[in-house]
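Reopening this ticket.

The earlier resolution said the output was attached, but the attachment link was broken on my side. Pasting everything inline this time so it's all in one place.
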Amino acid sequence: MDTVETMQKYFDDKIEQLSQDVDKKVVTQIKKDVTEQIETLKSDLKKSRDTFAAPPAPYARTKAFSDLITQEVCSEAFGKAIKGWNPDMIKGLAGYAKAVYGAEHNASLSPEVSKALGGATGAGGGFFVPIEFKPELLKLVIESQVVRPRATVFPMTGDTLWIPRIVDTTHVSGIHGGVAGTWTKEAGTITENDPTAGQIQLIAKKFSDYVLVSNELIKDSAIAIPALLSVLLREGLGFFEDVSAISGTGAAQMQGFLKSGSLVSVTPKVAGHINYQDVVSMYSRMFPASHDNAVWVCSPDAWPDIAQMAVSVGSGGSAVWITNYTTAVGAPPATIFGRPLIISEKMPALGSASCLCYCDFSYYVIGDRMSMELTTSEHVAFASDQTAFRIIERLDGQSWINSALTPNNASANTLSAFVSLAAS
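Inline output:
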């Protein structure tokens, strides 16, 4: 179209020069004829461009015009112009050209015209689609610690802490290791009954984790790596500290309450399952004074048995924990016999020893020599351009009672602050 405009200006200039030498009527006629030809050419070109923008139904054209259109379609400028077109429009244009001008003209279309772009592949157009990134990290929500929030915690100023205690294993003839009242007649000799003392020893043990991160990642990441590692490492140490407080062996680590000599085990009524009778028996083995502090702890796969506990009554029975079991609309209870129920993946699986426990964790002591401390260093891996992240805590923990208690009635069913369901 720009060429036509230039052509018109050229003719106008020539006609202006011609008007100085010939009759005005002749000039007027020539100008009229040229203008009509140019307008016709403009109209044809406009129709051809409109045809490309929204191809109409095929119609017959002269071969001369056909060649003109084919030339326009195959031009590099036109190919670049339609890169932003919808793929369906490009396909329609190719089909239109083939129907109107024949296969030989369609075959000569440039690759930019005949190829339909799309976002399925990078080379096919996917590279034009921007990538969206959300600088928020998705991670699991880690369960809270079971033992530490309920334990008795002592600060340590050195690597060893001695804590005095009363050794109390039986209440048959005395308490606190021997204290008892004696009925004495007038002027009679009073019987001596002394308490028994003991002590426990806590030795600080190091618990740590260590991560190396490239400095490129620290500088380039959309997520603040130091802040992220601070959260991840603290959660990691807290999680596995709890694992040790539950089932640790005591060798270079904390001794878990499940390894304590004070643990009382109740044999399940049905092997591999938890029944209402088991829960009742476990409740009866807790120190009577500890019910206000005790909590139930079970593994996730033990929960279905707890949810379906029932009591047999004659030939029938009834649910004892979830009373709206016919609708399952409300949330399940969060307690058993009024005491909180904690579900933890750190507990042994159903059928294993201690898949369900009833504990008063105030009888578990933790000595803190050094709280969690996160430090960084750019010098440890200086040659590899990495930053080291190190987290350390020093602590120890154990049950401060090391045996079960024989009650005053001398029953064989001993009592403790730590009661578990035995293995099947």
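Reporter confirms the inline version is readable. The longest strand covers residues 364-381. The first helix runs from residue 2 to 18.
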